[in-house]
Amino acid sequence: MRLWFYVKNNGKAQTHKMSQTEKSKKPVIVAQIMGKWIGGGVESVIMNYYRHLDHTKIQFDFICDEDSTRIPYDEIKKLGGRVFLVPKYQKLPQYLKALEDLFRKNHYRIVHSNVNTLSVFPLYAAKKAGVPIRISHSHSTSNVREWKRNIIKNILRTFSKRYATDYFACSELAGRYLFGSKTFDRGEVKIIHNAIDLDKFKFDPIARKNLRKELGIDDETIVIGHVGRFVQTKNHHFLIYAFKKYHNKNPNAKLLLIGTGPLEEKIKAKVKKLNLEDSVLFLGQRNDTNKLYSVMDIFCLPSLYEGLPVAGIEAQAAGLPCVYSDKVTIEADAANNAYYASIKNIYSYLQTLEQAIANRVKNHNNIKFSKHFQISSNVNILEKFYQQPLRVMHLISTDVFSGAENVACQIINLFKDNQEYIMTYCTIIGKNKEALECRGINTTELDRFNLKSIKKACSSFKPNIIHAHDPKAAIAAVLTNNKQNIISHIHSNHRYMRKITLKSLIYHFYIEKHIIGIIWVSNSARDEYVFAKNIPKTLPSYVIQNVVDGNQLKSIAKTDKNNYNFDIIFLGRLEDVKDPLRFVKLIEKIKQHQEIKVAMVGDGSLRSQVEEEINKLSLNKNIVLFGNQVNPYKILLNSKILVITSKYEGMPMNALEAIACNIPVVSTPVDGLLDIIDRKYLCKTDQDFVEIILKILNSEEVRKHYKNKLSVLDKKLNNTVDFSNSVSRLYN
Predict the structure, then answer these.
(1) Which one of 49, 74, 289, 567 has the fewest beta carbons within 10 angstroms of its own beta carbon?
(2) Residue 608 in this model has a pLDDT that exceeds 90
């Protein structure tokens, strides 16, 4: 059983260490936003679902306003749940702060808000806290008589979809009211009916006999019942007048009113004024409501508005005919035993009431109840939704295959057997096609890298998270999405990120405000960001070093049937940042000492210049220019040294790949490698490069010593389990 506790006002969670049993089960924890818990229908619905869920799979945390009065603490504790009290929503700044802190502290994957138009507030806090699945659940509608409340409701309705990723409603009427008919007609609203446990509300003749006796009601007396809070919505004033008219014809009739609320004393005064004190029974809040339905002969609900009345569904389960107002959705007729009457004319309502009483079936158990309202049928739907995998879209702005693209593929493959996630690689499928295919990567193709194409891809894949693998992708994700959580992955310490430029200004003052976290590939990459000290404290900023799955790399290498044998390999784009021209010149200097065989794997804008330089220095017999290779790993495995001449890097994937293959690395002192490579193998001058490379090539002892260090380093750096866990924590 999970530890249960509640927290008052500040929403701060206590530390809780999970048992091994608990860890193995790993139930999805859903934060249920309940508002003020005062014993209403919504609370009844959520608790009913909670009782019937498989708690090894799903658990609830109930988040309630501090002025709640009827929270069933003991039952929630018994079922393994938790209760958190936060400031009431009228204290909006404190309310939002407490919720955001609570969401961050508990790392919720799902927040399910049940406070109708007010859901915009907790879901805003959930969005800020990085919760990937945010449900807005419509349980009600409105009425023109509540014009003051409707002004606020109608303002908030315009924001009902702003921060929600999913839309729920108890009925079509409630769904159209909160989310709009266009959204409903597009099939974007999921109907979750207010289902009940039929066995609990089944007609009980023994309870009928005993409770009637207890209440002083004989067997022949017609008993009209109502269950609901004494609030304007439930229209008790109308009900009392309607009963008065019926009572004039049937003086022995009784009216049972079950519930409490702010208008209770006014209704009691009205009953007294109409001389109905002996005929109207105020039973208050009861724990045996399910049995009291058996006492009744008919159920009345003249509400001004409803989403889908739970009490009406419960009454029908007990075999009672229900007389609803015409403001209640037709979907509330769960057993083909409901009557609808206008509340504009009391005589019309009375006529319908008399008709329902005359036609009532004495055999209460002989009813056909809709499966839509049976808890056993509906709980599976909810469980399935809560357990759905998170959908992650890896967004890349280029059609080439390099370090960042390789990392995205690494992540996708590391999570491919994890049923908690579904991932896709989203980009223009161009030069990278073969690389993606040989790695078995699921792709979502863009026609062009523009906002329209990205929106189309999001509409098709429906991601919960967009993992943007370059600044351009991060900007595009932010501009096209306001629902999905966006993670920005900085793979290289770009020059424009190290100083105040237009791009760094846009990133800091705009992008950072719309993402849930930043992944840096090295401490140095993060620390040299020009605005590193000004990253908001609320924005998670993690250093997660790249990793390489050596086994997967070697498996891909085996698909290449060629034979290779090289002393040195250059593996990277032929771009200025990688400085391939310096590499060629280094080879010329090494050649002055001994003959060597070199592989250059990669392509880019400097290719023609590289070829010219090779020809100029007469290195055609020494350097094999492979161009871009989707599978460079067999070449790497059959090379003695990887040489990196980059001007700057984040955490170079080629270095990690070499380490995984036990290939010595000699490099410029770039970011990332400063943290992991022995400084004597990091070269500032060409002379340093020449001396170290020759020493490694010509000394078996030096090579062996370096490779021993690499074996240890590989286990430390290329820890795919730790890497996966780090990424998963950010996703959640």
Answers:
(1) 74
(2) yes
